[in-house]
Specification:
Nucleoplasmin-3, single chain, nucleus, methylation, four-stranded antiparallel beta sheet, about 0% helix, chaperone
């Protein structure tokens, strides 16, 4: 099974970051697909840089700028469902917003993989978590 939940959040001068995380007890596969980042009413004509802070396969925190928005030249950026694995934090690294982020939270139930024994990880230990492909 798979379900999609719409996700929206706003970054402003007073709320510069938003963290999306899932319950650690939940063994479903969660994916966050970011579709649009846009400036909303009240934004000044300044650069607004939005960063995504996540973890790489070595569990080190990495921050990646995904959007640099400016009212006069690029008020909106379509990210075409940029996929992220929670937990992930969106941060307004520059500018005062407001910047609206919209996307989908996809939950893939693991029942399709019921033939895999969770407690027998001896053979699979060397498998790294799924990461975006290196360009």
């Amino acid at each position: 099974g798979c379900s999609d939940l719409f996700l929206g959040c706003e970054l402003t001068a007073s709320t510069k970051s938003y963290t999306f995380q899932v319950d650690k007890e939940d063994d479903s596969n969660h994916i966050l697909a970011l579709s649009v980042v846009c400036l909303t009413d009240g934004a000044k004509d300044e650069c607004n840089v939005v960063e995504v802070i996540g973890r790489n396969h070595e569990n080190q925190e990495i921050a990646v700028p995904v959007a640099n928005l400016k009212l006069s030249c690029q008020p909106l950026l379509s990210l075409d469902n940029f996929k992220l694995q929670p937990p992930v934090t969106f941060r307004l690294a520059a500018g005062s917003g407001p910047v609206h982020l919209a996307g989908w939270h996809q939950i893939m139930q693991r029942e399709d993989a019921s033939f895999e024994e969770d407690d027998d990880l001896s053979e699979e230990e060397e498998l790294a978590p799924i990461m975006p492909a290196k360009k």
